């Protein structure tokens, strides 16, 4: 059933069965192929743990509703399936866990849009090594995050990612690992693939969740862990210039967890004490 280029070991649950490889679930006449109604979420397994897997499973259902799809699975059912899928891999394997929904049929009552009754669900797990926290470089993108009036920014929707990808491509072409992306007002939103924090005078700061970007599950977890450990954390409007004057910068996101930013534009930064605390607290939480 597999097609396409070789992929890491992957299992997908679809329509009641686990299938290995990359099964052709979407065809040229599928709505999602043409008009892009799809949502997903991403969790991770590593070192035998799956931090916040329940939250990632619940969020994919909220994302589906936000783009007019009708979730076919309860949050707990997705969680149970994901736990089932883990058994297809080594206990300590580093995995990406991705539940997804898409629209299969066009809605005949709409000029465009997917028929919610045709919502399909698949859960894929695949081997994806964890990244060593060696640090990433970041540059400002000229592309911007849309507001909710422009795009379904309240969903983790596939359609948002080609915009993030152009920011990532621009950064790569300039010799950087990731891009800092502003919102339409010119305030910092996030990176192309993760949320962003800065530290100034011992205070951790991250852009307010203003609806233009995915205020991530890892971001919320890290804020909570830092606060409980006595480090002040502030959500506020932050400008590019604030980051240029930061003592520390780091990113949070499911895929790479807590990662130090060691170069911002031409400026080298050290992985600082607040970053190190955040990463250690996250690992302690994951293993608790
Ligand atoms: N922003 C974007 C654009 C992302 O793709 C991700 C990764 N899912 C995040 C932020 C971080 O979100 P989370 O911590 O929920 O994974």
Question: What do these coordinates show?
Answer:
- The chain has 288 residues and is α+β, with helices and mostly antiparallel strands.
- It folds into 2 domains: 10-127, D-amino Acid Aminotransferase, Chain A, domain 1 (2-Layer Sandwich), CATH 3.30.470.10; 136-287, D-amino Acid Aminotransferase, subunit A, domain 2 (D-amino Acid Aminotransferase, Chain A, domain 2, Alpha-Beta Barrel), CATH 3.20.10.
- It is 26% helix and 28% strand.
- The chain has 7 helices and 15 strands.
- The chain has helices at 31-35, 53-66, 75-86, 161-173, 217-228, 240-244, 273-287; strands spanning 10-14, 17-20, 38-40, 43-45, 95-103, 119-127, 136-144, 178-182, 188-191, 195-200, 203-207, 233-236, 248-253, 257-264, 267-268.
- Strands 7, 8, 9, 10, 11, 12, 13, 14 and 15 form a 9-stranded mixed beta sheet that branches.
- Helix 4 (161-173) links the parallel strand 7 (136-144) and strand 8.
- Helix 2 crosses helix 3 (75-86) and helix 5 packs across helix 7.
- It is globular and about 55 Å long.
- It starts with 9 loop residues before the first strand and ends with a helix.
- The model has no long low-confidence stretch (mean pLDDT 97).
- 4'-deoxy-4'-aminopyridoxal-5'-phosphate binds at residues 42, 164, 190, 193-195, 214, 216-219, 252-254.
Features:
26% helix, alpha+beta, globular, D-amino Acid Aminotransferase, Chain A, domain 2, 288 residues, binds 4'-deoxy-4'-aminopyridoxal-5'-phosphate, D-amino Acid Aminotransferase, Chain A, domain 1
